[in-house]
Design brief:
The protein has about 350 residues and is α/β, with parallel strands linked by helices. The chain has helices at about 10-25, 40-45, 70-75, 95-115, 155-175, 200-210, 225-235, 255-265, 280-285, 290-295, 310-315, 325-335; strands at about 5, 25-30, 55-60, 80, 120-125, 140, 180-185, 185-190, 215, 220, 220-225, 245-250, 255, 275-280, 305. The protein has 12 helices and 15 strands. Bound molecules: NADP nicotinamide-adenine-dinucleotide phosphate (NAP).
Length: about 350
């Protein structure tokens, strides 16, 4: 069994990945921006039923500072670098996301190299693969890169593409044998473990609370957080995965309307407020003039981004859950944990 450092233990994916590593018998260290959040992580690991959670070590480290990273990587065989800013709204200055994402990844890689870590698996994103290409029917694969000068490239998208590029450039130029693998997930859904869940699940929250009164004409790709965690662990040890990127998605995109329908048909009363109507794109464009939140969705209207998960399935024997299973799992967990109140 290996000693694994997971960065960002407070996060949706970070906490699930720790739980999965513990269930497989690995020793885990995780970084937090502040050790004050340790009890929150412990609670999430308890909700996940993770065995041996009292054995997890916690180290304070921020992506924007050098402090703590050498302690965090000490003794680790592998690093799963998951932490990166994932905000609910667009920042005024794109560098609020780009700088921590890029410089943080470089800090982690440098520390890992200096400590003799074998492989770093970096959580990148489909945001580094399939954005900035305008409307297209093509099916994106791991050979594709986001076009930073193209349409629909938000500061978050840019932060993920820039950070992943910087990571590959670093291992090529100064890695000194350190292996890198990236996982490029689409929108992550699946069960939340506590109130601090990622922005992706807010879509389900707003459907269940009735805040989303009509479904926008958006089709999205999904993947279950448990499957993304599993893919990181497979990528961590598979000899085939060194130097590779892996797209992580369930399959074909699903529309917001299909999600709302699945919630209504499977959750009964709990999904009574999920939208039954579809909102026309022109109305959303108009309303977005006054709503910064809607403005973020406008570039997605009518855009379908198809991608292929064959590489992860074939090389790493990865078998993801369906779109429907992962969105229903998000919804059921929000209901079960009483997180629909706000
Ligand atoms: P999340 O719950 O918001 O987790 C983000 C994590 O990054 C948190 O632990 C957060 O710590 C940490 N972080 C942010 N800024 C930091 C900084 N300056 N220093 C140290 N840690 C920092 O979102 P998530 O979905 O689990 O995201 C995990 C990874 O998956 C990210 O790399 C994200 O880009 C990627 N991803 C997510 C999705 C998705 O749909 N959710 C899709 C594709 C890729 P705090 O709790 O202290 O803020």
């Amino acid at each position: 069994m290996a000693h694994v450092l997971v960065t960002g233990g407070t996060g949706f994916l970070g906490s699930h990945t720790i739980a999965r590593l513990l269930a497989s018998g690995h020793k885990v260290t995780t970084t937090l921006r502040s050790l004050k959040r340790q009890p929150d992580v412990e609670k999430m690991l308890a909700v996940a039923g993770a065995p041996g959670r009292e054995g997890v070590s916690y180290v304070e480290a921020d992506l924007t500072s050098d402090a703590g990273w050498d302690r965090a990587v000490a003794g680790a065989d592998h690093v799963l670098h998951i932490a990166s800013p994932f905000p609910g709204s667009r920042p005024k200055d794109e560098n609020e996301l780009i700088v921590p994402a890029r410089d943080g990844a470089l800090r982690v890689l440098r520390a890992a190299r200096d400590a003799g870590v074998r492989r770093v698996v970096l959580t990148s994103s489909f945001a580094a693969v399939g954005y900035g290409h305008g409307p297209t029917d093509r099916v994106f694969t791991e050979a594709d890169w986001t076009n930073l000068d193209g349409p629909g490239v938000t500061p978050y998208v840019k932060s993920k593409a820039v950070a992943e590029r910087a990571a590959w450039d670093f291992v090529a130029a100064e890695g000194n044998g350190l292996e890198l693998t990236t996982i490029n997930p689409v929108g992550i859904f699946g069960p939340v473990l506590g109130p601090d869940y990622a922005g992706s699940v807010r879509i389900i929250h707003s459907m269940l609370t009735g805040a989303m009164r009509a479904a926008p004409p958006i089709r999205t790709n999904t993947v279950d957080v448990r499957d993304v965690a599993e893919l990181h662990i497979k990528a961590m040890t598979s000899p085939a995965a060194a130097g590779q990127r892996y797209l992580a998605l369930a399959g074909e995109p699903i529309s917001f309307q299909q999600i709302a329908l699945a919630l209504r048909s499977q959750l009964g009363e709990a999904a009574a407020k999920a939208p039954t109507r579809s909102a026309p794109a022109w109305l959303l464009r108009l309303l977005s003039i006054a709503s910064p939140q809607l403005r973020e969705t406008v570039p997605q209207l009518g855009v379908v981004r198809r991608a292929d998960n064959a590489k992860a399935r074939e090389q790493l024997d990865w078998a993801p859950r369906s779109n429907e299973e992962s969105v229903l799992a998000s919804a059921r967990s929000l209901v079960r944990l009483g997180l629909l109140a706000d």
